[in-house]
Amino acid sequence: MKAKLIVLESDGTPSVCDLAYLVKQTEKNRGYLDYKTLLLPENLGAVPLGMFHSGQGDPGETMDVADAHATAKRIRFLFDGEEGATRLPRGAATDAPPASENRADLVEYAASAYKWPLKIEHPTDEGHCLVYFGARPAETRGTPADVPLDQHQKSVAAKAKSLANKVGLHWLEETYGGAGDIHDSGKNRDVWQRAMGGTKDKPLAKTKSPVNLRLIDGYRHELGSLIDAVLTPEGPTDDLLLHFVASHHAGARPHFETRQYYRQNLMRSAQECPEIARRYARLQAKYGAWGLAYLEAVFKSADGIVSSEEGESASA
Length: 316
Known about the structure:
Blueprint: E1 4-8, E2 14-18, H1 19-28, E3 37-39, E4 45-46, E5 53-54, E6 74-80, E7 85-88, H2 103-112, E8 116-121, E9 128-134, E10 147-148, H3 149-166, H4 173-182, H5 190-196, E11 204-206, H6 213-216, H7 221-231, H8 239-247, H9 266-287, H10 289-309
Antiparallel strand pairs: 1-2, 1-3, 4-5, 6-7, 6-9, 8-9, 10-11
């Protein structure tokens, strides 16, 4: 059977075709795939660091993230035509499968088993249906609390190094850890701590109290963290590490807006912004646009996971 690919148009409209069809279309029109997104079968290849590499995997092997969980907190069922549902990976069934792929049956199953349906997919046009279930997000969130800045940064550094190893980026472990150690230092400013209810003597990274965003007045702590890093004698000079620090929330793609500058050091903020854009361009040339986005996502995930475990109720 020919491998099927899902093509998403720029407006999100999906269609299914095979690779031979795409090759013919691109031969006729080299811009045919412009602004389209391709979803490929897992055994067709991979996109490490933004570059596609072909490779044939074990047909019986799955690379679904649901299979990384040994418990029933995240499970997956395959509905295969008239054969009913099968728990994936096969041989690990601990839950009776849903009665059918009918939405009402799935909702009833989710309610009775204290799970909720994450996603329903029809990966082929042959009647197959994949249904995902997982634990309720609230069960994984900690209790909101005041979190000291140094404690949060150490936790993110450890989590970032751990994630880097888990996704095969062990050679960047120290880069991720180094970014975690300093990524929120820009929160140690009077303007930010007043908004969070902390002090310069005992700076907070997270707070259980409401944040007064008006006091922050647009300031982005990521830019402050970057300025701290480049002004520190013998501080980090690695482009990727500095980009993680600058981009772990909303900015640095490719720069920060004037309203996001640190008001007490406008000149330095203005000096750094062009270099942020140049750094971004250098890293895209090195890793590719999607490769750099993937590397950023790993660091952002580490920060997000730690924040969730800390019971984040407010941030800025």
